[in-house]
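Exercise 7. Given the encoded structure of a 215-residue chain, write a plausible sequence.
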């Protein structure tokens, strides 16, 4: 993952839906989350702020979200209400030690186990990310490309989006998507910028279809 502040190399993409470049297609996205998840995430954000460990705890949450997403067995164990809390806490302790989590992150995870709220972990991580980005004026964007882009390419893309949005910090999450053929697609906030070959082909096809319909 690439991330960055406005004065240094960007950690990601960022942007407000202002003037978008030519050929850009904007698509709305939506979603709903459990209010309880937002409350737990807010509590962790506030604790991290109070203890001056917001950046470290954010890194922990980012790592945790990645682990759960990539390891189905781990997710099933943590989310399963039948698995006893002692076993879950042992797993939490092992993960925390190996990943070097802040004690506040570990304590928070143990609290989720005790309150039988581990099934909300994905939503809590998502809400934490959003609240963190709001506090730090960080725009998160997903960069999908047919092949892995070089760091310099990601930096230039992030810098351009930063100019468009005016966000102080940028966080870019690169994903390989070979179906794009070439080029890339950037998804940020409720918008999408499609500069892929597939996207351009689809756009041409749409224009041809409209032309034939009005001919």
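Solution.
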């Amino acid at each position: 993952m690439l991330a960055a502040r406005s004065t240094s190399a960007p950690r990601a993409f960022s942007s407000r839906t202002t003037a978008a470049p030519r050929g850009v297609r904007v698509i709305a996205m939506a979603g709903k989350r459990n209010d309880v998840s937002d409350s737990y995430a807010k509590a962790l954000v506030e604790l991290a702020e109070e203890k001056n460990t917001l950046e470290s705890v954010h890194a922990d949450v980012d790592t945790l979200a990645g682990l759960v997403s990539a390891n189905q067995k781990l997710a099933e164990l943590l989310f399963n209400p039948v698995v006893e809390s002692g076993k879950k806490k042992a797993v939490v302790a092992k993960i925390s030690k190996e990943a070097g989590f802040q004690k506040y992150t570990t304590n928070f995870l143990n609290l989720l186990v005790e309150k039988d709220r581990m099934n909300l972990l994905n939503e809590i991580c998502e809400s934490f990310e959003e609240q963190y980005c709001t506090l730090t004026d960080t725009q998160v964007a997903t960069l999908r490309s047919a092949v892995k882009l070089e760091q310099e390419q990601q930096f230039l893309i992030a810098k351009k989006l930063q100019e468009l949005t005016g966000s102080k910090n940028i966080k870019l999450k690169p994903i390989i998507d070979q179906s794009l053929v070439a080029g890339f697609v950037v998804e940020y906030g409720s918008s999408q910028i499609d500069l892929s070959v597939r996207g351009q082909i689809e756009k041409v096809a749409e224009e041809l279809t409209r032309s034939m319909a009005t001919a």
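Remark. Helices lie at 35-50, 54-70, 72-79, 85-99, 103-114, 121-136, 151-165, 197-214. Students should compare their own answers with the one above.
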